[in-house]
């Protein structure tokens, strides 16, 4: 980190994994713990930023000195991130967001019907929050950063995703059932829309977070506007 280089800046970080409800007791979810996003929030606060952390279903305690907004589903996360992003210098989407949600929410618990096979589960697309943020840029000079969780062909998929989403930086990391999700360490390559590639070797999630803020700080307009 570099002292208080984010002083006067407002940054938004999303963390954790969305849950898409099927009925009052069940959901479709993912394995994100929130650790990478919380590391980003803590390190930004330590560098002087005002931090809004939009946290989806993480069991982690609120970091000191950070405004935490707790959400459940992708639509809730979108609402909270979009609201906070209106006043932000940078937005970092570290949350694992569901691409699809159940087409129907059953207001009562779905019952098992004897002798009958279950209905196939119908899904609909969720909005792509990162693509929306990248396209809208409510504040001029705002830096938008995504993560890409990939299980194979990590770099080619990451490059394609950077182009598709339209963000300034994309942090490409490999995931598996017990890889990256929930662990204290990560390893990544940060791709820039300008063609830059910054490898971050295997180490604590804080180390990757510091590198992400270094790359964001380089891209922010010179003078804080507050
Ligand atoms: O929480 P941990 O246990 O520490 O694990 C960290 C992590 C693996 C969750 C994190 O490092 C990570 O990779 N987060 C992004 C996970 C993800 O959703 O990746 P994706 O490749 O499916 O999505 C790409 C980007 O688009 C992400 O920034 C995601 O937030 C965003 N997205 C995805 C779908 C959608 N509908 N809207 C989005 O904004």
UniProtKB/TrEMBL annotation:
Family per record: In the C-terminal section; belongs to the PPC synthetase family. In the N-terminal section; belongs to the HFCD (homo-oligomeric flavin containing Cys decarboxylase) superfamily.
Full-protein interval shown: 194 to 419 of 419
Protein name: Coenzyme A biosynthesis bifunctional protein CoaBC
Domain of life: Bacteria
Keyword match Metal-binding: yes
Ligase in keyword set: yes
Segments forming domain DNA/pantothenate metabolism flavoprotein C-terminal: 6-218
Organism ancestry: Bacteria, Bacillati, Actinomycetota, Actinomycetes, Kitasatosporales
GO molecular function term, any single one: phosphopantothenoylcysteine decarboxylase activity
């Amino acid at each position: 980190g570099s002292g208080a280089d984010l002083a006067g800046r407002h940054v938004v970080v999303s963390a954790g994994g969305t849950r898409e409800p099927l009925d009052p007791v069940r959901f479709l979810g993912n394995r994100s713990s929130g650790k990478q996003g919380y590391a980003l929030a803590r390190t930004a606060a330590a560098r002087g930023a005002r931090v809004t952390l939009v946290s989806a279903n993480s069991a982690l305690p609120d970091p000191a000195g950070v405004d935490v907004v707790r959400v459940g589903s992708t639509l809730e996360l979108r609402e909270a991130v979009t609201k906070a992003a209106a006043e932000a210098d940078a937005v970092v989407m570290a949350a694992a967001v569901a691409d699809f949600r159940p087409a129907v929410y059953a207001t009562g618990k779905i019952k098992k019907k004897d002798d009958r096979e279950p209905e196939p589960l119908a899904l609909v697309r969720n909005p792509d929050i990162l693509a929306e943020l990248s396209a809208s840029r409510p504040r001029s000079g705002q830096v938008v950063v995504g993560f890409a969780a990939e299980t194979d062909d990590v770099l080619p998929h990451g490059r394609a995703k950077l182009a598709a989403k339209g963000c300034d930086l994309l942090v490409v990391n490999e995931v598996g059932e017990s890889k990256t999700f929930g662990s204290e360490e990560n390893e990544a390559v940060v791709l820039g829309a300008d063609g830059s590639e910054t490898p971050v070797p295997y180490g604590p999630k804080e180390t990757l977070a510091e590198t992400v803020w270094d790359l964001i700080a380089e891209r922010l307009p010179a003078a804080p506007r507050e």
